Amino acid sequence: MSLDKVYAYIDANTDDFVEDLVKLVKQPSVSAKGEGIQECAELVEKMMQEIGLSTKIFHEEKGNPVVYGEIKSKKSDRTLLFYDHYDVQPPEPLEKWMYEPFSGKISDGKIYGRGASDNKGNLVSRLKAVQALLEVTGDVPVNIKFFVEGEEEIGSPHLEPIIKKYKDLFSADAAIWEFGGTDRRGRPNLYLGLKGVLSVELRAGGASKDVHSANAPIIPNPAWRLVWALNLLKDKEENILIEDFYENVLSPSSEEIECLRNIPFEEEETKKELELKKFLQNKSGIEALKALLCQPTCTINGFVSGYTGKGSKTVLPHEAVAKLDFRLVPNQNSNEIFRKLVKYLKNRGFGDLEIIKHGCTEPTKTPINDPFVKLVAKTAEKVYGKRAVVYPISAGSGPMHLFRNFLGYPVVSVGCSHPEANTHAPNENLKIKSFIKGTKFIAALIGDFAL
Predict the structure, then answer these.
(1) Which residues, in sequence order, are bridge partners of residue 397?
(2) Cis peptide leading into 369, omega within 30 of 0?
(3) Could you give the 3-state DSSP secondary structure of residue 443?
(4) Are 395 and 292 in contact (CB under 8 A)?
(5) What pLDDT sits at residue 1?
(6) Which of 80, 194, 307, 375 could be bridged to 313 by S-S, CB 3.0 to 4.6 A?
(7) What is the mean pLDDT of residues 45-72?
(8) At 178, is the secondary structure helix, strand, or coil?
(9) pLDDT tens digits, 329-382
(10) What is the phi/psi pair of residue 294, to 5°?
(11) Under 8 Å CB-to-CB from 352, ≥6 apart: which residues?
């Protein structure tokens, strides 16, 4: 299939494509707050229908709607599925944004707004690639399916029942995952897996209400209680101290280690961007990469107790709350880690803490030598003119395991983002040039997948 006409169509319709992305960015869809979810799901469905996809919205008893779209090829039985999500992270802190977080403001060749990069930009680029193929050729080279959920940013807690209930509908030969892009040198990045994640909340209680801090000699302070508990989880050398935490950790294979050696790790650029003199434990080179991609973690996401406003307030708080996440690697399991955490704290005298499990996903990855991986890498090099950088697994997390482990097909994550996209941070953005290039890449990949 010649892509010249398809690329020409994409170039000619850049303004319209950008306008549709801006429209989607302007629609809030914050899953953590339940803000704008139904409206955004309906907008995504409308965008699918406008390019010719048949659609269905799954409204399960629990969870946010899942938008499904498909179009069948007239000449191929192969099926490529795209997984995306329409929900976004909360925009806070609002004062750090240059423009309103849901404005879709265009400035200096970038679209600004929460979700512009993660994940609405990738979603729209894929829809527009399908649109271009349909408009130019009147068909798609392979069957196309879109699976677009609304809870990815909160750990996809209600996704598994939908996947299992509609297993046949979501079947495919391979899938493209939701994120990716190019590095600072314009090299396309491919990710073959995701770490799992377990999100946990620890709560310590004391008196029925805040009291004067003069009562500290006789009133228990839940903030100290929680600090002492947290101090048991990890030592100064970053070792996680929960009993048997590392029991099922799968060490990277020699093939994966060799893959890590070929990753051009931009550590100096990253440290400069983050204004850091060194990484944790002064790790560098392949050791930093191995830690980032192959080691599990225990991270305090936030700690709240008592008074944290301006000036002082002599108060003894009545409760303390900490939120943590554990990033897990193959072959760890989130339910096992949660049980180990609860048992560990109880055995050390902290059975009084309330331990709440929020979202969780499992680690997974597609083998480096899978034919689909090779195909995606070859297409990426053809479109971008540079050899693809292959990551055996990503440091991030998501419900990829439901598609890779349960549905059983290879999954590769690629996209149209860029290193300064500020995903999950203020001033999230997407370069218009990257968005259009990514659209062409997806169009080429669909064509190559049919061969």
Answers:
(1) 195
(2) no
(3) helix
(4) yes
(5) 67
(6) 307
(7) 96
(8) coil
(9) 999 999 999 999 999 999 999 999 999 998 889 999 999 999 999 999 999 999
(10) -115, -5
(11) 204, 205, 225
Mean per-residue pLDDT of the chain: 96
Instruction: Enter the pTM of the model.
Output: 0.89
For residue 130, CA distances in Å to 48, 136, 171, 440, 445 come to: 10, 10, 19, 10, 11
The predicted-structure confidence for 266-297, as pLDDT tens digits, reads as follows 889 889 989 999 999 999 999 999 999 999 99
Q: Where are the alpha helices (DSSP H) in 166-284?
A: 222-230, 254-261, 267-274
Residue 262: its pLDDT value, please? 87
Q: Dig out the tokens for 104 from the structure.
A: 């879709």
Distance of alpha carbon 435 from the chain centroid: 18
Residue with tokens 């280690």: 257
| CA-closest candidate to residue 45, choices 25, 26, 70, 28 | 70
The radius of gyration of the chain's CA atoms, rounded to the nearest angstrom, is 23
Dihedral sign, Cα of residue 235, residue 240, residue 241, residue 246: negative
CB 243 within 8 A of CB 344: yes
Question: In the prediction, which pLDDT does 307 show?
Answer: 95
Output the DSSP codes for 382-442: HHHSSPPEEESSEEEE-THHIIIIII---EEE--SB-TT--TTSTT-EEEHHHHHHHHHHH
Long-range own/partner contacts, residues 400-404 (CB < 8 A, 24 or more apart): 400/83, 400/177, 400/193, 400/194, 400/361, 400/364, 401/194, 401/196, 401/361, 401/362, 401/363, 401/364, 402/159, 402/160, 402/163, 403/81, 403/83, 403/163, 403/170, 403/175, 404/193, 404/364, 404/365, 404/366
What does the alpha-carbon distance between residue 196 and residue 393 come to, in Å, rounded to a whole number?
11
Q: In the structure encoding, which two tokens stand for residue 415, read together? A: 């996209």
Question: Is pLDDT at 2 greater than 90 in this prediction?
Answer: no
In contact, 45 and 109? CB cutoff 8 Å? no
**Six-digit token pair at 417?**
């983002």
Helices (runs of H) and strands (runs of E) counted in the chain: 13, 20
Of the candidates 159, 167, 129, the one whose C-alpha atom is nearest the C-alpha of residue 52 is 129
Q: Quote the tokens at residue 160.
A: 């598994």
Tokens for 145, please give them.
């399916």
Domains and CATH numbers, the chain: 4-192+366-449 (3.40.630.10), 196-361 (3.30.70.360)
Bridging pattern class, strands 211-212 and 193-205 = unpaired
Cα separation, 21 vs 15, in Å, equals 10
Decide if 345 contacts 229 (C-beta within 8 A): yes
Give one word for 36, left, alpha or beta, with left for phi > 0 and alpha for psi -120 to 50.
left
